[in-house]
Amino acid sequence: MSFARSGHVVWRTLILLLPLLVLAVPAHAAPIGIPALTVTPGPNGTQEYSVTIQILALMTALTFLPAFLMMMTSFTRIIIVFSILRQALGLQQAPSNQILIGLALFLTIFIMAPVFQRVNTEALQPYLNNQMPAQEAVIKASQPFRKFMMAQTRKEDLNLFVKLSGKTYKSPQDVSFWVLMPAFVTSELKTAFQIGFILFIPFLIIDMVVASVLMAMGMMMLSPIIISLPFKIMLFVLVDGWTLIMGTLAASFGM
User: pLDDT tens across 190-211, in order?
Assistant: First the structure.
């Protein structure tokens, strides 16, 4: 008998035996697998969900992590200032986008470290130790972020979004989190552009001086950027520009 024919016979035998194996399983046998949902009643009418559903919800929430990073931390202000600084220097790809984003991310972690520490102490650790339900942990975790965002939000920006929401609040502390977030981002954009404008002034003066000198010498065909770029880099290095930028950004958040 050939190998092909032998394999054909084996497959036919397995197909015939499969219904017999299924029928041989007792009807009362317990199902195999992880339950999709387990709900445990808690105090005050609350409900606790199974770990499987909690992990699924956590993985879904991680997809919104970039949006939360920009909407609730100092990342937006820092990355905009770095981008404006690179344009003011006249550099196109140095430092690269990856370097700027990495630098902004680690500076954000440094600035937000007290907030993260409070979230870990007041919400994350009690929840991991089963001392606090998930709903209360989320509320506790939002309080440090709310305090940070409220301190950086301008009153006029907050009033604008409160007016657009059509709701009234007794005090700024009662403002909804979803109203506070766009107001916070608007304030961050305004502050970032103000810092960027101040950064642009010395480099703009150098460009104007170089352009005037070249025009007086009759070298109109020579691009002023080629001549002014080394002077701008030299000025930035001599004044220890990166240290000044880092210190200014950290101080702008009240550190």
Answer: 999 999 898 888 888 888 888 8
